[in-house]
Fold this sequence. Notes:
This protein has helices at residues 7-23, 26-33, 41-51, 69-82, 88-102, 105-116, 131-134, 242-276, 290-318, 324-349, 360-375, 378-388; strands spanning 122-125, 155-160, 163-174, 181-188, 195-202, 208-213, 222-234, 280-281, 284-285. The mean pLDDT is 91. Strands 1, 2, 3, 4, 5, 6 and 7 form a 7-stranded mixed β-sheet that branches. It has a two-stranded antiparallel ribbon with strand order 8-9. With 397 residues, it is α+β, with helices and mostly antiparallel strands. The protein starts with 6 loop residues before the first helix and ends in a 9-residue tail after the last helix. Helix 8 packs parallel to helix 10. A hairpin with a 6-residue loop joins strand 4 and strand 5 (195-202).
Amino acid sequence: xxxxxxxxxxxxxxxxxxxxxxxxxxxxxxxxxxxxxxxxxxxxxxxxxxxxxxxxxxxxxxxxxxxxxxxxxxxxxxxxxxxxxxxxxxxxxxxxxxxxxxxxxxxxxxxxxxxxxxxxxxxxxxxxxxxxxxxxxxxxxxxxxxxxxxxxxxxxxxxxxxxxxxxxxxxxxxxxxxxxxxxxxxxxxxxxxxxxxxxxxxxxxxxxxxxxxxxxxxxxxxxxxxxxxxxxxxxxxxxxxxxxxxxxxxxxxxxxxxxxxxxxxxxxxxxxxxxxxxxxxxxxxxxxxxxxxxxxxxxxxxxxxxxxxxxxxxxxxxxxxxxxxxxxxxxxxxxxxxxxxxxxxxxxxxxxxxxxxxxxxxxxxxxxxxxxxxxxxxxxxxxxxxxxxxxxxxxxx
Length: 397
């Protein structure tokens, strides 16, 4: 493995950081999350038009840049650093890879170029608080019971004249209230022969009701969608192995989420170091006290270790390399812990102002807590990785 980044990858990082520094100040971030969509549409247009960010990991034949998971992870590190209010995670990291992997030729040709250009946003909807299970990050449900198990509840799909109809409810859908295309996981075939398939639902489809939910992390907007006999299009064909495709997506998503968390942790740590160098107590900078130095040094080491783990997870997912199925979960666990630690140190070392709810450090702490609620918790990420690697199995069993 060559750990060095190419000139092109470094350019992606520099260009994206420069743009976000100019367009994503704390004031602009708070203004964006207070809009009905929860993100800055103008910023999204700029990221798509100037950098091709939504299509960074899509092939050139689909209108993308032709990059890999590594380039997308580097981009996520920079958007995480700024907590950029964009639909990048929902559209480019979760939905687009499924369209590429499972879509028919017509579906890929009709949807992916629009996603790559920034003209179409998408979201992945899996029933219940089960995103981590669906992506095989905290468990591997080989029957897809998280999608409703074919019984009442969850999301069900049935054949109808001229296509498919879906019905049910999905909570906690990232950007689900504003996405123009929904990729909905649903059970079909009844209880005895139930299986999970993915369906495409237009954001303006008849019978679809969407509302934005109040989330702990306002920079990561979520929606609740209700499907009342909504017309839908099957993604790919009925022979598609949806559960395996979601599990493969899990490694990619975990690497990008880990890189995003590392970017956020690095930024809040930078701000804290800067502040303790200016704030004085007993006639000297707070940062000159040995206890403060030790705490920040420990946090720095934790962030750097998490950054290395995130980079390796991205490289392993792009290769793919041995251990790729566990590298993402482990890197994500390490990154979420590093972000929580860095944000907590930031709140405390900023003193009284750091404890005010309006301070910037709280946005980073909420991101750590919100991500752990969404794709964790950390101990389950590690436990599943250990099970997948057969760490606790006795020899010969």
